[in-house]
Amino acid sequence: MRTKTFTAVAAAIAALSITSAAHASVDITSFAQGWVNSAGQSNGASSGNNTFTGNEYGDRYNSWAAFLIPTGTYSAAVLDLVSSIYANPDPGVDRIEIHDVTTAYSAFAGGFAGTAAYADLMNGSLYGFANLYNTTISLALGGNAVSDINAHAGQILIVGFTNATLNLRNPNGVDSGIYTNTAAPVLHLTSGAAVPEPATWAMMIAGFGMAGAALRRRREVAAAA
After folding, report:
1. What is the domain range of residue 140?
2. 119 domain-assigned
3. What gap in Å lies between CA 164 and CA 131, rounded to an integer?
4. For residues 147 and 213, what is the distance between their CA atoms, to the nearest angstrom?
5. How far apart are CA 99 and CA 120, in angstroms?
6. Strand pairing of 126-132 and 94-100?
7. What three-state secondary structure class fits 172?
8. In this predicted structure, what is the pLDDT of residue 207?
9. Which 3 state secondary structure label does DSSP give 13?
10. pLDDT tens across 27-83, in order?
11. Domain-embedded: residue 98
12. 69 with 155: CB under 8 angstroms?
């Protein structure tokens, strides 16, 4: 009987261990980036592309980065950014907001993404924000981002960047901003915990029940002695 009990408990623990081990980290480097300005002009889509985010020559600039999300389920996301300042005069630290993007990736590939694409980079759900200068950061993204990442598993996810500091200033005569990809942005994704199958739960419950019954019997025998 002890052997059966031990086997059942061991199987239950093994099943639980497999479930807990389902957490894993996946690192995804952005494969293309770019900008779109308030006139709808864009600079295409390529790796290492210019991601100016600010004001220049009377236009505002938002930028973006694209990631190919592997198939899976994810519970957390952290975005690595290496930024650099472009300023004349230097305005100091800028608040860069990160938003969801619904515009198709193909729209950013040409030289005119359009004003709707420009607006999309700054008006979607907020994923997070960071105060950037010549800054390297690892930013934990919010629940909206995690939900969208899961919705885009096996597809391209685009995130948009807008300069919330300079958006409050008249762009005329203010040539300054932030480059959000001095190095290509990287997403660190944590895979979601696996949920045990019903049979696994039954095995664990039965195993712990048998262990409890065996323990009670040993106590009864000891008390009788």
Report:
1. 25-191
2. yes
3. 10
4. 44
5. 8
6. antiparallel
7. coil
8. 52
9. helix
10. 999 999 999 999 999 999 999 999 999 999 999 999 999 999 999 999 999 999 999
11. yes
12. yes
User: Which CATH number covers residue 40?
Assistant: 2.60.120
Q: Residue 156 has which token pair?
A: 């391209």
Cα–Cα dist 48/158, whole Å: 15
Least trusted range by pLDDT, from 47-61, 142-156, 208-222: 208-222
Assess if residue 58 is contained within a domain: yes
Q: How far apart are CA 171 and CA 94, in angstroms?
A: 14
**Enclosing H/E stretch for 18:** helix 2-20
The pair of three-digit structure tokens given for residue 114, joined into one six-digit string: 């359009």
Residue 2 lies inside a defined structural domain of this protein: no
**Selection from 127, 134, 139, 141 nearest residue 182 by Cα:** 134
The tally of domains found in the chain comes to 1
| Residue 47 CB neighbour total at 10 angstroms | 12
Contact residues for 160 (Cβ-Cβ < 8 A; gap 6+) = 62, 63, 64, 98, 99, 100, 101, 120, 121, 122, 124
Mean pLDDT of the 173-200 span:
81
